[in-house]
Amino acid sequence: MTREERIDLIKSYLKRLGAGEDLESVREDFKKNFEGVDATEIMAAEESLIREGTPVSEIQKLCDIHSALFHKEDKDPSKSVDLIKNTENKIDRGLFEKKFEIAEELINTKGHPLNIFHLENEALGKLIEKAKVALEKKENYYDAFLEMRNLSIHYAKKGDLLYPHLEAGFGIVGPSNVMWTHDDEIRAELKKLLSNKDKAEENIERFKTLLTRIEEMIYKEEKILFPNCAVHFKKDDWIGIYKDMKDYDIAFGVNETWDEAEEAKEEFKLKIENEVYLSGGHMNINELNSVLNSIPAEITFVDKNNINKYFNEGEKLMKRPKMAIDRNVMTCHPPKVQAIVNAIIDDFRNGRKDNVPIWMEKAGRTLYVNYIAVRDEKGEYLGTLELVQDMTFAKKHFLG
C-alpha cells in the first residue's frame, strides 16, 4: 500500500468518526489494515480533510477522538494498544501536538517571524470580533472591514516567504496549492467589497461569508501552516525570512525585533567558482552581463572620483563610447554642461540630494533621464548612476 493510499484509508476512518460511528467499530477495521501508523500520516490525513472542506472547527473537536483511534490506554499497562509508530511523534492530546510545541516556542520568541505572524493574527482577530458586533447591529461594518486591509500585507508575506520554501525545500505542497489560492480569493473579495461602499448594505451576507473565511484562515495558519514551518525550517531559514520581512510594510502595527537575527552575520553557502556573489544572490559573469544589457535603460556608473566605470551595451540615444571608460566624466561633456554635471555630483557627494530627474526630447523621442546617488549601507557616497529610459511608448500609451 502506498503512502497516498494509506492516507486515504486513514481519512475514511476519520470521516466515519466525524459522522458519529462508534470508536471501537472503526478501531477494529483500522487494525485489520494497519499494524501501525506514523503520526505524520495522521496529520497529513487531517490536513487533507481540511483542504477538502471539512470545517476546521470540526477537525479541532475531533482531535482527541482521532488520537483515541490510534492510541488506546488500558488500566493494565501491559494491555495498552499503541498503534502510533515513531514514539517521538506521538500526540496524546491532539494529532498536531508535537508541531504545536515547537511552533509555540518560536511564537513566544520576541521578533521571530512566527511571533510576528501570530501577533498579526491576534490583532486581526480583535478586528474580526469588532466586525462581528458591527454586522450583528448592522452598523459601521464597512468601516470595521476597512481596518482589515493590512491582511493583504500579512498574506503577501506568507505567499512570498513561507509557502514557496515549504514546497521547494521540503516538498510540502498543500499550503501553496490550497491556502495560497484561498488567500488570493479573500484579498480579492475584500477589495471588491471595500470598493463598493454604496452597496455595503446589500452586500452584508458577502461580508459575513468573508469574515468566516478570514477567521478560518487564521485557524489554518496557526494549526497547520505555522506548525509545519516550525518542524521543517532551520534557524538559518528563519533568519533569512526575518530579514526578508523588512522589505514589507508593517501590518496591524506589529513591528518586533528579533535580536538573534539582528546579530547574525550573513553566511553564504559554498561559493561556486566563477560566480559573482552579491547581497541579493549570485550569477556568473555571462549572466550578469546579459542581465544588465537586457534592462530597458541606458546605464552609466561614475565612481566617487568622477571616473567613468561602466556602460551597459546596446543601441543608445545618449552615446557612450567605450574609450570613455576610466576617464574623468567631465571630459565627456562640453564646457557649458560641465558646470551642471559638477553641481549634480557635488549635491550627491555632500548628501544634499539623492536623485535628479530630467525629462527631455531627443531625436524625436521622449526621454526620462535619472541621475541617482549610489550609497552603501552606511550611507557613504560611492558614485553616480545615470539611467536613460525611452518613454515614447508610455507617452503613446497614455496620450494615444
TrEMBL record:
Protein name: Hemerythrin HHE cation binding domain protein
Matches recorded under InterPro entries: DUF438, Hemerythrin-like, PAS-like_dom_sf
Coiled-coil regions listed in the entry: 183-217
UniProt cross-references to PANTHER family, sorted A to Z: BLL2471 PROTEIN-RELATED, DUF438 DOMAIN-CONTAINING PROTEIN
One Gene Ontology CC term in the entry: plasma membrane
Originating species: Peptoniphilus duerdenii ATCC BAA-1640
Keywords on record: Coiled coil
Residue span, Hemerythrin-like domain: 113-227
Keyword Coiled coil: yes
Domain DUF438: from-to ranges: 10-72
